[in-house]
Structure formats: C-alpha cells, structure tokens
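4.2 Preliminary Data

To establish feasibility before requesting continued support, the project team ran the inverse folding procedure on a target of 69 residues. The structure was first converted into the token representation described in Section 3, and no sequence information of any kind was made available to the design step. The complete token record follows.
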C-alpha cells in the first residue's frame, strides 16, 4: 500500500491497517500527544483503532507543544 505520511511517500505491506497500527508501525513517540489528519480531516482519538487506512491516503501526525511566557 502506498501512503503519504507527513508529506513523504511511504510503502507499507500491512493491509488492513488502522491509525493505531500506523502509529506503532512508524514508532511515533508519545502517541497520546499526537493528533492525526487523514486526507485533511482530523480523526477523533477514540476511533484510531477502527479507522482504516487505504492505498493512496495522506496521513499527517501533528504534535502540539505548550509553552511560552
């Protein structure tokens, strides 16, 4: 399956693949702190395990950091 992850072309052999599986596959650090966009739409965290990735999908992992003064 061909995907675009954070703007980079990636090839994965797993199918079916959920967002939770993808987070593990790409060893995403702090998965509890990441938001996921699938084809430009934010995915609700409770559905990560049941939202399936399809060939040619575009996935972005977005990290939000606090801070400032």
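Position-by-position output of the design step:
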């Amino acid at each position: 399956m061909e995907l675009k992850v954070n703007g980079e072309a990636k090839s994965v052999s797993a199918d079916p693949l959920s967002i939770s599986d993808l987070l593990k596959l790409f060893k995403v650090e702090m998965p509890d702190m990441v938001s996921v966009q699938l084809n430009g739409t934010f995915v609700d965290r409770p559905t990560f395990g049941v939202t399936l990735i399809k060939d040619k999908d575009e996935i972005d992992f977005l990290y939000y950091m606090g801070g400032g003064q």
